[in-house]
Amino acid sequence: MRPVKGLLIDLDGTVYRGRELIPGSAGAIARLRDAGIPFVFTTNTSRMSRSDITAALESMGLPVDQSEIFSAPVAAARWLKDKGVRRIQLLVSDSTREDFSDFEIVDEDPDAVLVGDLGAGFTFERLNAGFRSLRAGARLVAIHRNRFWLTGEGPTLDAGPFVAALEYASRQQATLVGKPSAAFFDSASALLGVRRERLAVVGDDPETDVRGGRSAGLTTIQVRTGKFDPRSFAEAPPEERPDHLLDSVADVPSLLT
User: Which residues pair with 150 in a beta bridge?
Assistant: First the structure.
């Protein structure tokens, strides 16, 4: 195993599922803190702002500092600022709008249309409004393009299918700013102050965490919680095979110390 000097830890499906912590996750985070191993929570979750994610984790029994969370919406806001984009049309939840308070939020003549997970809010009217802005020259930006996520009711469509619909209709390729984009891992690496080759990504998703981490040159640690599926894992292509497979995030400290 390459020396690991820092961790990028996924949240949904890795640290918690639904409204409960995965058994052993709080203890694992405490052990990592005690061992002095730097980490940041890297999540594609786009239904909640960073402050609401922090509050949700605390309510589950895992107190964290807001600065320890690097979410895809936060990455998107940084990317937009770097590109000089000011006027944006948001297809995101009300909570997530908080992460874009420094921008001019408009419904007409935006510079970019930003797409996250709206859930049932993905109505024809909202999608069509975004499509018309794209046709008028706005840029399509995907906070992430996850295919689905797991809820208490079972697998549920995420933002990815709706991003694909807007791409098809507008004949425009979306710019991806969340996982598994290399830019996301670059930003997380800079935030920790640790080179990518000395980082490990811990997560449950074979596409965003494993494939994304491998492509970015990180050590990859997949957990058998969340989206992990034994049959899919057995048939996974090489780019979706992790360096390490653990039962849960609770086993991560023992791997590193």
Answer: 155
